[in-house]
Hints:
By secondary structure, the chain is α/β, with parallel strands linked by helices.
Amino acid sequence: xxxxxxxxxxxxxxxxxxxxxxxxxxxxxxGLAPSSAYVIDPTPSxxxxxxxxxxxxxxxxxxxxxxxxxxxxMMGAALPVLKAMGGGETLFVTVxxxxxxxxxxxxxxxxxxxxxxxxxxxxxxxxxxTAITGNATxxxxxxxxxxxxxxxxxxxxxxxxxHQMDAVTAVSGxxxxxxxxxxxxxxxxxxxEGLPADLAMRLAKATVGGAGQLAEESDExxxxxxxxxxxxxxxxxxxxxxxxxxxxxxxALLTRAVKAxxxxxRELGK
Length: 270
Ligand SMILES: NC(=O)c1ccc[n+]([C@@H]2O[C@H](COP(=O)([O-])OP(=O)(O)OC[C@H]3O[C@@H](n4cnc5c(N)ncnc54)[C@H](OP(=O)(O)O)[C@@H]3O)[C@@H](O)[C@H]2O)c1
C-alpha cells in the first residue's frame, strides 16, 4: 500500500470500534508501521492494545491524515480535540454516517481538506464498498490518499458530490442489514415449509452469500443470471411471480425501504 507521507507525519485514528479496527487491521496488513498510527479511543479493545500503535498518547502536531470513526452522536465531544489540526496541512477523512462536510468545516475551517466516506459492515472481512467525496479544498492527491486508506477494507467508488451521499447510504451503507433480513426471512420461510431451523438457516446463508458473489463476479448481469435459473412454469418462476409483483413485490418494497432510509439521512443531516 502507498501511505504517501504517513510514515513520516503519522496517521491519527479517532474512534477504534468496529469500523476503525477493521481499517486499522487492513493498514497494518498493508505494511503500515504501528509506530506511524495514533489511536484515540476511551475503551480500546485487547486487539488494539496488542498492535503496538500509539494509544491515547500525545498526537503529532500536523499528522498526514486524521481518520474519524466515532459515532455521529460523539462528534460534538470528539471534534474539538482535533481543531488545532485544521487549516490545510492535515487531511481529514470521516466515515461517520450523516454528519455533513459543512459540520466539519465549521469546526476545522473551510481551508481544511475533508473527505467524507460511507463504508459498510462487510469491511470487517475486507469485502466492504465505500463511497467517497471531498470538499472544495480536497485535492486529487487528497482523494487518492483517502481512497488508498479505505481500499484496505474493500472497494472504493467516488461520488459526483455530497448530494449523492444520502442515496448511497440508503443503498450500500444500510444495505447489509436488508440482506441480513433477507437471510432471516428466507430461513423462516424454509421452516414454514417444514425444514429444521438450523438447516433452513444454513441454506439461506449460503444461498445469499453464494448468489451475491456470483452476481458480483459473473460477466452476466443479475437480470440474466435470474433468467438463467428460471424455467418457464417451474418452481423459480412460481416464486418470482410473487417477488416481482409490481405492487407487492421486491421492486416496490425496496423502493419504499431505500426511500425511507434516504429521507431519514436527509433529516439527520439537517
Ligand atoms: N459499522 C458500519 O457499517 C458503518 C457503516 C458506515 C459508517 N459507519 C460509521 O462509522 C463510525 C463508527 O461506527 P462503528 O460501528 O465502528 O462504531 P463503534 O464500534 O461504536 O466505534 C466507535 C468507537 O469510538 C469510540 N469513541 C467514543 N467517543 C470517543 C471520543 N470522544 N474520542 C475517541 N473515540 C471515541 C467508542 O468508544 P466507546 O465504545 O467507549 O463509546 C468506540 O470504540 C460511525 O460514525 C458510523 O456512522 C459505520
